[in-house]
Amino acid sequence: MEYTILILALPVLSFLLLALAGMKMSHRLAGTIGTLVLGVVAVLSYLTAYQYFSAPRMADGTYATLIPYHITWLPFTETLHIDMGILLDPISVMMLVVISTVSLMVHLYSFGYMKGERGFQRYYAYLSLFTFSMLGLVVATNIFQMYVFWELVGVSSYLLIGFYYTKPEAISASKKAFIVTRFADLGFLIGILIYGYYMGTFTFTPDQQMLMQGGMMLPWALGLMFVGGAGKSAMFPLHIWLPDAMEGPTPVSALIHAATMVVAGVYQVARMFTLYMGYAPETIHIVAYVGAFTAFYAAAVACAQSDIKRVLAFSTISQIGFMMVALGVCTSAHPHEGGLGYMASMFHLFTHAMFKALLFLGAGCIIHAVHSNEMSTMGGLRKYMPITHWTFLIACLAISGIPPFSGFFSKDEILTACFAFSPVIGWVMTVIAGMTSFYMFRLYYCIFWGKENKELHAAHTPHESPLTMTLPLMILAAITCVAGFIPFGHFVSSNGTSYDIHLDWSVAGTSIVVALIAIALATWMYLREDQPVADALQRTFPKLHRAAYKRFYMDELWLFVTKKIIFRCVSAPLAWFDRHVIDQFLNFLAWATNALGEEVQPLQNGRIQTYTLWFLGGIVVLTLMLLLV
Amino acid sequence: MEIHVIHYLIVSTVMLFCGIYGFFTRKNLLAILISVELILNATNINFAVFNRYLYPDALEGHFFSLFGIAIAAAETAVAIAIIINVYRNVKHVLTDDINELKG
Amino acid sequence: MDISLLDIAFYVVAAVIIFFSVMAVTTGRIVRSATYLLFVLFGTGGIYSMLGYTYLGAVQLIVYAGGIVVLYVFSILLTQSDRNMRYKIPLAKFLTVLLTCLVGAGLVIFLLVSNHFALVTIPQGVELPATEIGHALIGADKYQFVLPFEVVSVLLLACMIGAIMIARKQK
């Protein structure tokens, strides 16, 4: 498996090439380089996955954990050292496949979407950087390497969100994303430090002795690490950056803010899963509650948004909430006794990455066609954009959990795991799944059915996108159709052994019924050209609609907390103190030095007589001192 | 009565400090140079006196004085040449006014 | 308490040196200053002779008193330096210099006195033979000085050329 180093090396080389020499290249050449490199990376990832999973299992029925590369980078003590390396185990190989697939699709898609944009080469360089960081994150051999790449992911996300750097919204969105995730990463860092301090190691798999030493602090360490994960994965209340991050180019949203980066938090929790199970079972339930609330909140907000990408962003938050819940409801590492959620979460991560990337790319096609993000400017587009329409419908059905599309299978496993943990959580998640179907079909009908926008069509008839953009849609749609039949449990499960997915028809049936009801409701409300029911509802509950549209004022709450409380009550006095006490003291020092200099300056008058006089006086005084002392 | 070595040394000390005093108070370059000659003379006397009193068999101090005189002559020649050149350029030889070359 | 003639001569010479040293640096006329310097140089030559270094005394008279002072007088006349003697130095500076010099001189004399030099007598009136000096000056052995002698000769030559170069008129 030595070639796995290429999976990391090629994107970084491509980034360097495009960043340093990109401006000299034509758009076509730069895009081709980026896409070809990603193609090779994808092929290598598939090869890795094939070789890894076709290798014989070990005696206890798990796949061997391989570490083809390992460098001790910063040794502190015998056990505490920061390493760099590549770790292959079922989830990291699965992530390699997900990331390289989605990234390849996005590279291909961007050819059409970004055509003629200024900074096309820069865009591809950033994409390569992001892919590199994300791949490095998933193959990290220890927490610190994960953290390093975690931050690199943050940086490349910042660069990509702020790609349109002349647009003020994009700049503030990129800053917001960076600051919010950085703030959360502080928790991650403190968690790592606690982990390193008490356990004396940074590895994912501490031995028994280390656990004896630091097991007490493990819940805290893991909880703080989850804060970082919650920031990246946009869990409530740190989700506020993700909707704004939609200011970036749409393919970027598909890659980073739907499929890969935002699941880093889920991946992190999954990575630490055995430790959670053994030493911090309560902490992982906190993850479940946070995830459930986030899923509900985001679904509620998504029902009222009018910007197509915002709907998808909240839908992403909600779906990541599902994954978190699935991880959080695990009570043991055994897949048959409470460990089902782990497999379900990873499965959902996999399928969601595909269909959410598909949704975003589809949204990109639509935005490309109508030059607007607002749903009200769309409508009736199904005649003009058939491929986009059909692939979008497939993705909507998948996310709603309608068989035989992939989302049905993964979501069903999540719901089964939830019901096994507690019926309350199970029913709540089922309702949220229903809400998901509702808002997705609301979106679907508003875009593709309903009233045509005559004004727009008069000026410029929407048309189907070029092949570079529709091809990724079709590939992703095909994956979405068949991914559900992958025997995922064979590859990934909570304790590594093979696990047969079997549908629990009572849960599955319920979820299908709920989804169908929600779709029917959405059809009834939004299929027609005018939408009397929706308007009536909006009129009946104006405050509720307004609150949901304003995302229940979470941004305002954050602004209140930061501006009114932190800035005014903490920062302002500190700033005053800094300006009036510390600065003044330093000013005084500077003034005193200056004044002293002014006093001493006449000594330096350039006359050798004066100098020698001082010299002689010095000698006399020194001699006197020697005599007297 | 034998003359004690200190008596010679006191004479040279007084001569030395007269030279130093002149060096600081004079502004005329030639007057400064005269003061410097006093200082040099005082040191030459010291060399000779120490040689004669403390190491009567050696000759180092004696020759040091001799070379000192020669070098003082050389120094004076160059210094006076410079002073004359300065005078030619600025028409007087006061230290305060010769600052064209000051950094 | 027998005071030899040589003792009297020494104290007279010492008094002359001290007096004219002070005068040389305090007089307001530069020509007088040069003249007082001449007397000081004569006195120094006398001291060398009293120490028995007659040759050194002769060199002192010839080179210093005969050569250098003449140079001074010429350059004083050439630069009309007397005009430039009329100046005042600030009182504060004057006092500083005076204090420094007095304290310094007092310090040095105190150190000399407190050093307890052994009273070593020297043969009075016995001069260092010139042949010995000659041998030492041109010998190349240890404690002989042909190398410094040659170096000084080259230095003098260089100074001569340098002085001419500096002082000659610019074309």
Describe this structure in words.
The complex is a heterotrimer of chains A (629), B (103) and C (171). By secondary structure, chain A is mostly helical. Chain A folds into two domains: 4-549, no CATH class; 555-628. Chain A is built from 26 helices and two strands. Chain A has a two-stranded antiparallel sheet. In chain A, helix 3 runs antiparallel to helix 4, helix 5 packs antiparallel against helix 6 (168-199) and helix 13 runs parallel beside helix 18 (423-448). Chain B has a single domain, classed as Orthogonal Bundle (Helix Hairpins), CATH 1.10.287. Chain B has helices at 5-25, 29-54, 60-90. In chain B, helix 1 (5-25) runs antiparallel to helix 2 and helix 2 packs antiparallel against helix 3 (60-90). The longest helix of chain B has 31 residues, at 60-90. Chain B is elongated and about 50 Å long. Chain C folds into two domains: 5-128, NADH-ubiquinone/plastoquinone oxidoreductase chain 6, subunit NuoJ (Four Helix Bundle (Hemerythrin (Met), subunit A)); 129-171, no CATH class. Chain C has helices spanning 5-26, 30-50, 54-79, 91-114, 130-138, 146-167. The chains are: A mainly alpha (629), B mainly alpha (103), C mainly alpha (171). The interface between A and C is small, with 8 and 6 residues.
Write a brief caption for the model:
The complex is a heterotrimer of chains A (629), B (103) and C (171). By secondary structure, chain A is mainly alpha-helical. Chain A has helices spanning 4-21, 27-54, 90-113, 120-138, 143-161, 168-199, 208-214, 218-232, 241-244, 250-259, 264-271, 273-279, 281-302, 308-328, 340-370, 386-400, 406-421, 423-448, 454-459, 467-482, 488-491, 505-526, 532-540, 542-549, 554-600, 608-628, and strands spanning 66-75, 81-88.
